[in-house]
Structure formats: structure tokens, C-alpha cells
Write a structure and sequence with these properties.
This protein has a seven-stranded antiparallel sheet, with helices on one face. Strands 1-7-12-9-10 form a five-stranded mixed sheet, with no helix packed on it. The longest helix is centred in the N-terminal third of the chain and has 17 residues, at about 55-70. The chain contains three helices and twelve strands. Helix 1 (about 10-20) runs antiparallel to helix 3 (about 55-70). Helix content is about 20%, strand content about 30%. The radius of gyration is 16 Å and the shape is globular. By secondary structure, the chain is an alpha+beta fold.
Amino acid sequence: MKRVSFRRSAGLVAATAALIAGPVLSAHAMTPAAAPSGQQTYAAQARTAGLTHQQAAELQRQVDAVRAQEPRARQTSANTLAIPGGTVTLPAPGQTEARSLASPGTALACANGHLCITDGRGVNYDYYRCGYYDFNGVGDGTFNNNQTSGTRARFYNSDGSERWSHVAKGTGTASWTPVFHIRPC
């Protein structure tokens, strides 16, 4: 069994609080000439989606915070990262619902065979590979277990004991703060 890490920590909570209350300029706010080409593309996506320079910089700090928690995370758009087993899509600053900034105006869908979760911050997690994953959701949110009928998604406490499970297909609500690990199938 392969165990993959996506850990929750006080640092992420502090970083999120700093994003809300702190200054909007950071080391990540680079001039276009100094920014890596991928970041230029992501900045262009953010501008196309209507984000201000400050909002785009804040969003990039949030992406960087996820990457700091999961070093294998790879940024794939202005607000989406590929993580082991799936993707994470962050809501744009000032929004409560995550939408892909690579395709503005398109709502996120939970494809057949996927387990999708939206936590209380509006962060969307889309798992499409079987495995055991550490989970970083916070607050009350929703899930869509759109996997093959009969597939059981399991949700675990911090000590690894099973908290609850759900058999596909179906949707529901849950408190994600006490969930530390997920096994989609």
C-alpha cells in the first residue's frame, strides 16, 4: 500500500491567516521579465479571469503554501495543482467557490470514477486514483462519491482509525476538519 502525504499543519493555518490579514506584496510578486514562464502563463490566466495584480499575487501565495505542504504538488494553472491521486483547485481571492481559472466561467464537475470534496474554504479536491492520502480539508463542506457503484470511500482520523465511509454513488455533507486521511477506493 502506497502512502502519500498532504499534511495539515499550524503553518498552513498561519499562512492562510497571514494571507487574509497581511500585506499583499511578497517575494512572489515578480516583474514579468523575472517571472518563470509558467508563472507568466498563470498570471495571464489570473488577469483574463479578472483578478487584480494583488489578487493574483495572493492566489500564487496560496498555491505556494499547498506546494510547501506537499512537495510533489505541481501547479497546472493559476489556481489548480496536481497532487498525488488527484487535483486541488483553490478559489480565487474574494470567491467562495473554486472554478478553474484556465477555463473561466466553467464550473468544476466531478467526473465519473472520481471522489470530489469541497471543504469549508471552498477548496476543491478531486481524487481519481486509488490510494491512501493525507488530507488537508478544513470546515464543513460537501462530497460527491461519483466512483463506480459500490466503491467505498473511507475517511480516517489522525490516528488512522476509520471515522466514516460512504458507498458510491452518492453525495452528502461532512465536517472535514477532523478528517486527516482519505482512501477514495
